[in-house]
Design brief:
By secondary structure, this protein is α/β, with parallel strands linked by helices. It has 14 helices and 21 strands. The structure holds zinc ion.
Length: about 475
């Protein structure tokens, strides 16, 4: 019996997990955390619908929490096998999971103090210790290097261009019909021509079955030159004596932003000593990126050969300590402050917002998606005040958003990735996307001449 069960994402964009069974042996592709409102996140606490100690191995596409975030819980419940990932994914997963463990413990302590909990007892979903135990299970593998996590099951990682180390996973194994079938799990697909990383890759042979993400299956990112837009915004803000606050996710988005700011500095449009990276996690992530030279695209290698490395420690000022961060409060000269979190829900950016939102000369530039209910969304929606640390803060600063910096392929890029496959798969499953984008992408693929894609629900099982 060889079969595939879709367990996570499936109509949402978090909690990615697919279970593969080959005659009594089990593999998972990803083991991600559900992220969103309380109802969605409650799913993280349910029991796994299988016995974790009986899972043989996990194949991890990339280090984002919605793909790796339940690994510590899986290990806490008895999983003892290897977690195969690419070499660049390992240090990023360490950064992400240790941070998540610390946040879980802090939230549990806070809940205990306040006598409030979403659960019977205020316990963390997992602890920093669980996270470290999960990290010991990571087994790095090179891109393109075939390996066998189970006898007769061959696996390769291909570059997906979405985040440093992010992979599509090709798996070849015999089905119940005795024939060898090749499945391709896209993972999250990045953008063509994005900074730093090489473009998403296609396999040499067509897969029989494809499991495809569809996050932006129903829309295209606005055509936008982010460098020009950033340059104009910074110049206008500096000219009136204001500073630019740039909330950015520590992983991926921050490094893209540094790349663009570095280009502005190369053009003589920005003084690099006026740029501050104020996030310890983003600083560590940038160091991991800087050391991953084999993953760089030609443009970045060119730039490094001919001038400044946008990821280097001496390119822009870095604030490691709280004192260094606080010192920015006393700075009068205009500055660009890049800090996490990307949706202004936590992290040092919140302190800078408290300090500068009331300044009509300042400008807050959002570069990523702002989810409903976040402070970032409230600011973008034109709130005249926002609550920060229990105080109402008046918003007098300019608030703006720059598109074109998403880490996910849009609808036309997903189609481009599909057209790059050497042949149409006999079966396609669209997971990791809400229903409207899944349906839109399914219709587009039928127009390409593909057989109608399936939209699996949680628990849908199909033969290998
Ligand atoms: Zn991702």
């Amino acid at each position: 019996m060889a079969r595939v069960t879709f367990e996570g994402a499936c109509g949402t964009v978090t909690g990615s997990r697919t279970r593969l069974e080959f005659g009594g042996r089990t593999l998972l592709v990803d083991c991600g955390m559900f992220q969103g409102d309380n109802e969605v996140e409650a799913r993280n606490w349910s029991d796994f619908p299988f016995e974790p100690s009986k899972v043989d191995a996990v194949l991890l596409t990339h280090a984002h929490l919605d793909h790796c975030g339940l690994l510590p819980r899986l290990v806490g419940r008895g999983f003892r096998g290897p977690v195969y990932c690419t070499r660049a994914t390992r240090p990023l997963a360490r950064l992400v999971l240790e941070d998540a463990g610390a946040i879980q413990e802090e939230e549990a302590r806070y809940a205990a103090r306040k006598g409030y909990s979403r659960h019977a007892e205020p316990k963390p979903l997992f602890t920093g210790r669980d996270a470290r135990q999960a990290l010991e299970r990571l087994e790095p593998v090179r891109f393109h290097e075939p390996f066998e996590p189970l006898p007769g099951v061959q696996v390769r990682f291909l570059r997906a261009g979405h985040l440093l180390g992010a992979a599509s996973i090709e798996i070849s194994a015999k089905g119940a019909d005795g024939q060898r079938h090749r499945w391709l799990f896209s993972g999250d697909i990045g953008r063509y021509g994005a900074p730093i990383l090489v473009d998403p890759e296609a396999p040499e042979e067509a897969p029989n079955a494809l499991v495809l993400e569809s996050t932006y299956g129903d829309r295209n990112h606005a055509e936008h030159d982010p460098v020009a837009a950033l340059g104009d915004t910074i110049e206008r803000t500096f000219a009136r004596g204001g500073s630019v606050l740039l909330p950015a996710f520590a992983l991926g988005r921050t490094q893209d932003v540094l790349y663009h700011l570095s280009e502005l500095a190369d053009q003589g449009r920005l003084d690099p000593t006026a740029v501050f990276l104020d996030s310890p996690m983003a600083i560590r992530a940038t160091e991991i990126y800087r050391q991953a030279r084999p993953e760089f695209d030609d443009e970045l290698l060119d730039r490094i050969a001919n001038g400044a490395n946008p990821l280097a420690a001496d390119r822009f000022s870095r604030c490691n300590t709280v004192d260094e961060s606080k010192a920015l409060n006393d700075r009068d000269a205009p500055a660009v402050i890049v800090a996490a979190s990307g949706m202004a829900t936590g992290g040092r950016i919140v302190h800078h917002l408290a300090r500068r939102l009331g300044d009509p000369r300042a400008c807050v530039v959002f570069v990523g998606y702002q989810a409903a209910g976040t402070r970032g969304r409230a600011l973008l929606d034109g709130a005249s005040t926002v609550s920060i640390h229990g105080r109402r803060v008046a918003v007098r600063a300019q608030i703006t958003q720059i598109g074109g910096l998403s880490a996910h392929a849009d609808s036309s890029e997903l189609e481009r990735w599909c057209r790059a496959l050497p042949g149409a798969p006999a079966r396609t499953f669209l997971n990791h996307g809400e229903d409207p984008p899944r349906k839109a992408l399914a219709a587009d693929l039928v127009e390409l001449g593909w057989s109608r894609p399936h939209l699996p629900q949680p628990g849908t099982t199909v033969p290998w």
